[in-house]
Amino acid sequence: MTPAIPSALAHWLIANGVNLPTNAELIEGAVASGLAILALGTGWLAGRRLGPKLASLWQQRVGNHVEGLGHRMHTIVRHGVAALLLAILANAVPWGGFAALLLGIALGAATAALTLAFLRGLHTPRWVAWLTATIVFIAILSHAIGGFDVITTTLDRIGVDFGRRRLSLLALATLVVTVVALYAGVRLANRILGHSIAQARGLDATQKLLFQKIASIVVVVVAFFFGIDLLGIDLTSFAIFSGAFGLAIGFGLQKTIGNLIAGIILLMDRSIKPGDVIVVGDSFGWVNKIGVRAVSVITRDGKEHLIPNEILMTQEVENWSFSDRNVRVRISVGVAYETDLKLAQELMLKAATDSPRVLTSPPPNVWLTSFGDYAVEHEILAWISDPEGGVGNVKSDVLNRLWVLFKENGIDIPVPRREIMVKSWPADGTPTVQLPPAAPK
């Protein structure tokens, strides 16, 4: 048949080796274009209608664990439906070269847009998402026009040999796509499993955290072996090397593995849980997170201390909320010997009772602890149920209230007194003071 463009331009293109589509090919291409536009329109309509519903369902089932995919759900549905319909069209009919080219461009563009939206929804770096989408577009377009084998052969030829292995551009592209796909799959699986475990009703907070850690480790291990199988890497050829390498890694990561196991044990026996108030050495605060390597403890100053899990396993740890969140606060108070002790003790008890964070059950108490050098020593015992709010501010509040009560009732807070003994008084009126001997230097 004659070309569909009988003009000087057509003759010039033919003279330069360009094959123009015939009338039949143009008609077939127009039909393919119409069907492609219909598929894209159906995808747009599906994204418009189903996108918000799926986004709402995703928020209910997964929550904010994969927050990037929620607001992209309409885009993912639109390009996903369009890519599915275009794939069915491209493979249902043996299209000619021109129609196959048009469908290949539409299918490649829809699939690349789907890949880009999905990867960006998982917070994959922008350049990685665009690179992967470009590779997907080229692969689908070349497959549609029958040039996929040519491209793979050309990419495989560009490379170097390392013994029995060959490093080529084809292997590099395959590695990039495989790694990105596994990364996205692991990230998505971890988020979905994490949310599902978090919503389980039969588990407490510590058990949920433990199962989330185990699930994430299992997902990573499965993805690793799956990726090894996809890339065709034979691990038996690395048996000797992997043994020596594993031994070296074992010594190098001894502390890391120890901290990992210690963290799992802490979660299993529930001796330390997120939200507990603990004291480790000079660090006091509440447990924010139990990680793979360390436990995050936030102090009252807003500082976050990362304490290795092994330290919590091997050293003494004070857990103020292990079995009961009630903590007793001791406040030392001294009054003068001339004071009415019964009145002073009643005022101490009133100052503790009036403090908003002090519990009424168990009630506060006042103990007389000792007769000091210059004061009668007492101790106010007050209970609080929110140790994560700090202990020093409770003491400060009680002492401030007690100061006002003592002033109102004329009770003095004694200070140290020193007595000076005058042994003799000379005639000139100048006293002779006998000082204690100086301490030897």
Provide a descriptive summary of the structure in words.
There is one protein chain. The chain is α+β, with helices and mostly antiparallel strands and 441 residues long. Among the domains are: 22-146; 234-323, SH3 type barrels; 327-408, Alpha-Beta Plaits, CATH 3.30.70.100. Helix content is 56%, strand content 14%. It has 14 helices and twelve strands. The strands form four sheets. Strands 6-5-4-3-7 form a five-stranded antiparallel beta sheet. The chain has a three-stranded antiparallel beta sheet with strand order 8-10-9, with helices on one face. Strands 1-2 form a two-stranded antiparallel ribbon. A hairpin with a 5-residue loop joins strand 5 (294-298) and strand 6 (304-308). Helix 2 (23-61) packs parallel to helix 5 (97-121) and helix 10 packs across helix 11. The longest helix is centred in the first third of the chain and has 39 residues, at 23-61. It is elongated, with a radius of gyration of 39 Å. The termini are far apart. Mean pLDDT is 75; it is low at 1-6.
